[in-house]
Amino acid sequence: MDRIPILKMGRLLLVTIQVDMHDQLAITLQDDLTERIVKDRAQGVLIDISALDIVDSFIGRMISNTASMARILDASTVLVGMQPAVAITLVELGMALVGVQTALNVEQGIRLLERPSD
């Protein structure tokens, strides 16, 4: 079974999606990521989607649901590297990605996650 690597960077987890996501891969990633948040006591999750040209409604919901699960597990989520076409598609699909912060690149995303919460 294919898996997307999850890298630990201090108290953060980095997920770089570099393959076309299909439904089963998305579900596996969600399961793996929530397990790693608990195991590593991660305070933040950075999801890099810069390699994705297309995001459908299922993948959009998966990202939003993963962020909700991370929040319940006391971790923030930042989505980085979104292509303009992906942003347009998400808006057209009516996907708000509640609880997901966005940044242009990994460096900005890390800064968002390392910022002290108020």
TrEMBL record:
Domain STAS, residue spans: 2-113
Coiled coil residues, start to end: none
Stored InterPro entries: Bact_StressResp_Reg (IPR051932), STAS_dom (IPR002645), STAS_dom_sf (IPR036513)
Gene3D superfamilies noted in UniProt: STAS domain (3.30.750.24)
Name listed for the protein in its UniProt record: STAS domain-containing protein
